[in-house]
Design goal:
CATH architecture: 2-Layer Sandwich
CATH class: Alpha Beta
Order of helices and strands: EHHEEEEEE
Largest sheet: 7 strands, antiparallel
Strand order of the largest sheet: 1-7-6-5-4-3-2
Shape: globular
Radius of gyration: 17 Å
Helix content: under 10%
Number of helices: 2
Distance between the termini: 20 Å
Amino acid sequence: MSLLFSTSSIQLSKQFPTGPTIQDVLTVLHDPQQTLRLSEYVLSATPDPARGENNFLVTKTIPLLGGVINGSSTYKVKWAITPDGADVEVEAGLGTTIKNEMRVKDDNGVVLFTENVMIKVCLTHSSFHNHCFL
């Protein structure tokens, strides 16, 4: 069996010249349930106390064939609140892990929200032809 790891990083940012304040954004980021449910694809975000505080089992719907049918996937989420945002670790299926650092700050009078996302996928090849994809 051979292993191949693929890692991708994505940096995102959004400026809010009007609208939410830094405290408004932090209130959402410091409430994992609220943040997780912002996605229309999240069906449930269930606390996972066996793994500790701010750990969740998240189930989301996955549109297939252009939304003709839907599948679902459940993955583990660990949420760590920071003074200026949150750090999130996701353990998804097929060897996929995601680390997301979400931050909010004042940028010359404008609220700036940033995300640094690292996605790591494990590709395995064996006699069973197991593959891990994004």
